[in-house]
Design goal:
- Pfam families: RmuC.
- It comes from uncultured bacterium contig00109.
- With 450 residues, the protein is α/β, with parallel strands linked by helices.
- It is built from nine helices and five strands; from the N terminus they run αααβββααβααβαα.
- Among the domains are: 6-107; 207-382.
- The protein has helices spanning 6-29, 33-203, 206-224, 270-282, 285-310, 327-335, 339-346, 354-425, 434-449; strands spanning 230-234, 244-251, 259-266, 320-323, 349-352.
- A five-stranded mixed sheet has the order 1-2-3-4-5, sandwiched between helices.
């Protein structure tokens, strides 16, 4: 618990004394005038004593304050001195530790330096020893390999010499025989060269190349379509003397016998295509662009010619097919931007190559089959209609038969009822022996049969 200050204690004592005096004064005043004088005298004495006590207390408090100030100053001086001593001791300890760390680090560096130096010397010695050993082993290996290679070379040279002698002898003999055959073949080659020259002159003719395209087109049609589905040299346009090379028969959707033709004509712009290939070989971009445009003009001209001569709806389809006999030519036409779309839009001509024509004809063949199935389907529907009508009549016959059967069943039930009634009537009649009954019934059966 914290002690109360001295001043507070004094004030408390003064208050208590004042209360006691007040009580005494009250008590004395009640006893009379003499008593009041004595009380006042006592109060005066108490006041004197209080003054003296107050003075003594004040002096004591002053002395205590001075002693406390002096003790505090002495304590502060002692604390300062102790702190200074501790700081000096701490600085000394820190300096000592720093010196120890510095000395230890220097010793470690020196020891590490010595160790690294020793390791480096030992490593260099080991590397030198290893290199010397490897050099020695490698030298021995090289010498051994050289000896083996020399031996192998001698063996190979010997075998090669023998083999060459044998093979050269055989080869000279074979070459001599082949030279004789070559001399005989030269005469044949000369004849073949003259034949090739004749063939080149024939192929250089545009009409001949057109015949080759027509021949190739005929071969494709023959491979894919049956003979009944196409024809050669067909006059597809009424009042025209021009015949298309090939025309595919398109059956009508109804059952009429009228045939619609799909014109197919082979075209081969020989000169423009050859010039374009020559321009590609030379790498001249100007010539390439020029001959591309020329090829485009020729293809458009062919399309216009086919449409004018061979397309005549409703005798033909509203479009026709232009066949290009080489895939390279077809690819070149495809590379010309917008040409295929223009031909189809303006002239309604579909351009095909050997591969695309085969795909188109296969698709057309599937269409023919679908149309045939469709025609057969209509026939099947007619047959089913007839069967349905007959089946309705058959239902009526079955209904009548059911009625007849019901009537026969009722007659049989009536006969059974009558039979049971007869049995009841005959129950009292004497039964004949079986043999006699059978004889009698047999005679009756014979009479009935007669």
């Amino acid at each position: 618990m914290t002690a109360l200050p001295l001043t507070v204690i004094i004030l408390i004592l003064a208050a208590v004394a004042a209360q006691i005096i007040a009580i005494v004064v009250v008590v004395r005043l009640r006893r009379g005038p003499d008593a009041r004088d004595k009380v006042f005298q006592k109060i005066s004495d108490y006041e004197d004593r209080l003054d003296k006590n107050e003075f003594s207390v004040r002096e004591e408090i002053g002395k205590n304050r001075e002693d406390m100030i002096r003790a505090a100053r002495d304590s502060r001086d002692e604390l300062t001195r102790v702190f200074l001593d501790f700081s000096a001791m701490l600085d000394k300890k820190i300096q000592t530790i720093q010196e120890m760390i510095h000395n230890s680090a220097r010793a470690n560096r020196e020891e590490l330096s010595v160790s690294l130096k020793s390791f480096g010397e030992q490593f260099a010695a080991n590397v030198k020893s290893f290199n010397d050993m490897q050099r020695e082993k490698f030298g021995e290996l090289i010498a051994d390999n050289n000896a083996k290679l020399e031996k192998m070379r001698e063996t190979v040279d010997e075998k090669l010499h023998k083999t060459l002698e044998t093979r050269l002898g055989e080869s000279f003999k074979l070459v001599s025989e082949r030279l004789e055959m070559v001399q005989k073949g030269l005469g044949e080659m000369q004849g073949l060269a003259s034949g090739v020259g004749d063939l080149k002159r024939v192929l250089s003719n545009v009409k001949t190349k057109g015949v080759l395209g027509e021949y190739q087109l005929g071969g494709l049609l023959e491979q894919i379509l049956p003979p009944a589905q196409y024809a050669r040299n067909v006059k597809t346009r009424a009042g025209s003397a021009d015949n298309v090379e090939f025309a595919v028969k398109i059956p009508s959707k109804d059952n009429s016998a009228k045939t619609i033709w799909l014109p197919v004509d082979a075209k081969f712009p020989t000169e423009d295509y050859e010039k374009l290939n020559a321009a590609y070989d030379s790498g001249n971009t100007d010539e390439i662009e020029y001959y591309k445009k020329e090829l485009e003009k020729k293809i458009k001209l062919f399309a216009k010619d086919i449409k004018t001569k061979y397309v005549d709806p409703p005798n033909t389809t509203d479009f026709a097919i232009m066949f290009l006999p080489f895939e390279g030519l077809y690819a070149e036409v495809l590379r010309i931007p917008g040409l295929l779309e223009t031909i189809q839009r303006d002239f309604k001509i579909s351009i095909t190559g050997p591969t695309t024509l085969a795909a188109f004809l296969n698709t057309l063949q599937m269409g023919f089959r679908s149309l045939a199935v469709e025609k057969r389907t209509s026939e099947i529907w007619e047959l089913l209609g007839a069967v349905r009508a007959e089946f309705g009549k058959f239902g009526e016959v079955l209904e009548k038969t059911k009625v007849k059967l019901d009537q026969a069943s009722k007659e049989i039930d009536n006969a059974g009822t009558r039979s049971r009634a007869i049995e009841r009537k005959l129950r009292d009649v004497q039964t004949l022996p079986e043999t006699q009954a059978q004889k009698l019934l047999g005679d009756m059966t014979t009479v009935d049969d007669e």
